[in-house]
Amino acid sequence: MLKNEYIYQEARNGFFGWTKEGLEFLLSLTSKDKRIRYKIKKQIEKHTKKEKM
Q1: Nearest 5°: CA angle at 50, between 49 and 53?
Q2: How far apart are CA 18 and CA 11, in angstroms?
Q3: Which of 23, 30, 28 is nearest to 45 (CA)?
Q4: Taking the CB of residue 11, how many other CB atoms lie within 10 A of it?
Q5: What pTM was computed for the model?
Q6: 17, burial (CB in 10 Å: exposed 0-12, middle 13-18, buried 19+)
Q7: Distance between CA atoms of 33 and 41, rounded to whole angstroms?
Q8: Deepest in the core among 9, 15, 29, 53, taking most CB within 10 A?
Q9: Tens-place pLDDT, residues 17-38
Q10: What is the C-alpha separation between 6 and 50, in angstroms, rounded?
Q11: Measured distance CA(11)–CA(14) in Å, rounded
């Protein structure tokens, strides 16, 4: 499990300024923290929707 306060802070801030690739990489590192994984997946979905527009 990724135990990094920086990641938790970024999750609270909505991963502002993160790229889709960065979020996907972070998702690959966070295997057990379901709350963080959920927030990352939501941000990836937002990036995907923006790309389709």
Answers
A1: 90
A2: 11
A3: 23
A4: 19
A5: 0.76
A6: exposed
A7: 12
A8: 15
A9: 999 999 999 888 877 788 889 9
A10: 26
A11: 5
Classify residue 52 by burial, with Cβ atoms within 10 Å: 0-12, 13-18, 19+.
exposed
Token readout for 38 is 């959920």
Q: Please report, as a single letter, which amino acid is at residue 15.
A: F
Write out the two tokens for 45.
């979905």
Token pair in block for residue 15: 């991963």
pLDDT for the residue 1: 45
Residues with Cβ within 8 Å of residue 51, at least 6 apart in sequence: 20
Q: Which two tokens stand for residue 16?
A: 């502002």
User: Which amino acid belongs to residue 43?
Assistant: Q
